[in-house]
Amino acid sequence: MRSMNRHVLITGASSGIGAACARQFAALGCRLSLGARRLDRLREAFPNAHCDELDVTKSTSVERFVTAAIAANGPIDVLVNNAGLARGVEKIAEGTGEAWREMIETNVLGLLEMTRRVLPHMMQHKNGHIVVIGSIAGHKAYVGGGVYCGSKRALQPICEAIRMETLGSGIRVTSVDPGMVETEFSLVRFRGDQDRAAKVYDGTRPLTADDVADCVVFAATRPPHVNLDSIVVMPTDQASPQMVHRTVN
Q1: Which of 148, 155, 179, 182 is catalytic?
Q2: What does the DSSP 8-state code read for residue 249?
Q3: In the chain, what percentage of residues exceed pLDDT 70?
Q4: Of 203, 210, 211, which Cα lies nearest the Cα of 235?
Q5: Closest Cα to residue 32, out of 125, 64, 45, 223?
Q6: Measured between alpha carbons, how far is 140 from 151 in angstroms, rounded to an integer?
Q7: Are 131 and 80 in contact (CB under 8 A)?
Q8: Fewer C-beta neighbours within 10 Å, C or N terminus of the chain?
Q9: Please, are residues 145 and 198 in contact by the beta-carbon 8 Å criterion?
């Protein structure tokens, strides 16, 4: 794949899909602006990138991060909205609301906050690509995941609206929606419970973070007149959020 002299901004870049995207864009020669809450980990992994602390749920953090990124690397060509999480598996009747707010504030409001800071700059330069990391959960719900699924489903009409609102500006919008990916996702969902998180992937072959990053980079490297609206990528061993083939030892 040919090199890209582009400024790529990635949220949640200290691990998982965000870190994998950063590695692959770096290999193409891109200028990187990387944000995450774990700044030390970010700087250790990407010493040659512009790294800064970022909490997408806080408007002041987002504004400061975007301003510093543009100052360091120039106009943003690609925004990868990767920061997101699932928290717990509460059924609706059993929920307390705390986990719901965290998921909605991060997955929906955080993405909107980041995008509204970057999009005007892209429109001014008539160039840019917004990439959203969604989920198969945004297409199909499951028991104990109603609010997480709702937060991911919300990203679909948001992406559609951005495409319509920026039509004619040369801006592209892509949603990459993976199925099961073995990252820190389940560890975060179960608040650090290693055994419970590991059981999610027992006996099956999930996607890797690099598999998803491949899709992101593929979309970003299409010719300017080509927009991949949505990419749904699943492990061969998964047919739906709850239908997973597992090998019994």
Answers
A1: 148
A2: -
A3: 98
A4: 211
A5: 45
A6: 12
A7: yes
A8: C
A9: no
CATH superfamily entry for domain 7-179+208-233: NAD(P)-binding Rossmann-like Domain (3.40.50.720)
Q: Are strands 31-36 and 7-11 parallel, antiparallel or unpaired?
A: parallel
- Secondary structure (3-state) at 238: strand
Q: Which amino acid is at 44?
A: E
Do 139 and 232 form a contact (C-beta atoms < 8 A)? Answer: yes
Q: Which of 131, 111, 221 minimizes the C-alpha distance to 176?
A: 131
DSSP state of 105: I
Mean pLDDT of the chain: 96
Q: Which of 42, 84, 60, 79 is nearest to 183 (CA)?
A: 84
- pLDDT category of residue 96 using cuts at 50, 70 and 90: confident
Give the tens place of pLDDT for each residue, 161-213. Answer: 999 999 999 999 999 999 999 999 999 999 998 999 999 999 999 999 999 99
Show the tokens assigned to 57: 């749920």
Q: Which two tokens stand for residue 171?
A: 């801006």
| Helix ranges (DSSP H) in the chain | 16-27, 39-45, 59-73, 98-104, 111-125, 146-153, 155-165, 185-189, 194-199, 209-220
Burial of 2 (0-12, 13-18, 19+ CB in 10 A): exposed
User: What are the residue ranges spanned by the domains of the chain?
Assistant: 7-179+208-233
Q: Is 148 a catalytic residue?
A: yes
- Tokens read off for 150: 């709702």
